[in-house]
Request: fold
Amino acid sequence: MVPSPRAVFSVFALYGAFGNALLQAAHLSLLAAALVAAVPALLVERFAVTPLWNLLFRFQGKPNAPLEELIYAEATAVTPFRNGRGIIAVVRDGRLVQFAARLREDEAALPVRVGERLRVEDVDAKQERFTVSVLRGA
Reply:
């Protein structure tokens, strides 16, 4: 039953606007304008402002999926790997994003060039770092 701050602000703003309009255009007294302004303010809030805000909130962003969902996903090397470390690009929630990565210890000496395909083996979500392996001949 507690109104949202947005609704309270809208009603007060509309109340002030209608009160001033009634004072100026209809030449009502201050008390009459104050009493009459409440009705159109509430009606405009309910039938114009609220539906508009509801429409706008439908376009809010969706939260990202956890990074752990990218385990065993295919990635692409964005930079050549030096000392087993480099940058990869992977598709996350329909967007191509880049992360720091390192090769598995048993593959750390392998050369990895730009554009080479890799597989995500492990994810450190807190540091946003990936462990990857090389996909050869697949």
Observations:
- Residues 80 and 113 are 5 Å apart (CA to CA).
